[in-house]
Amino acid sequence: MIKLIIFLVGIVLIGFIAWWFFGKHQVQAEQAAVNHDHQSVDIEVKGGYSPERIVLKKGVPATLKFKRTDASTCLDHVVFSDLGIDQKLPQGQVEEVKIDTSKSGVYDWACSMNMFHGQVIVK
After folding, report:
1. Cα angle value 77/30/80 (rounded, 5°)
2. Residue 13 falls inside a structural domain
3. Whole-angstrom Cα distance, residue 104 to residue 41?
4. Which pLDDT tens digit goes with each residue over 15-48?
5. Helix or strand run (H / E) with residue 20
6. Fewer Cβ atoms within 10 Å of its own Cβ: the N or the C terminal residue of the chain?
């Protein structure tokens, strides 16, 4: 009987882990507001990124303002591999990352360990 309980708990845990890492999760998105021919979005870095998806207007200079409150060393950098950006994010400070909006596209970002992700959509 105990072996059956351990087996069932193991199956449930495997299912949870698969859902956590590979399942579709609802992603918070934010459209950047354009003010005086510039757009910016504040992003909180705490156990991940909030919002995780940013929509920017093509051709308008953009700045993402990351504020890291999480002490995790995984989140101490933000990396936009397609844009050639690897920006250090000191804890408790706002770090601005300039985004090139001259071309439409989808640009992913991740933490330094590639565990937490976000996305910029330029259209």
Report:
1. 30
2. no
3. 18
4. 888 877 777 666 667 888 788 889 999 999 998 8
5. helix 2-22
6. N
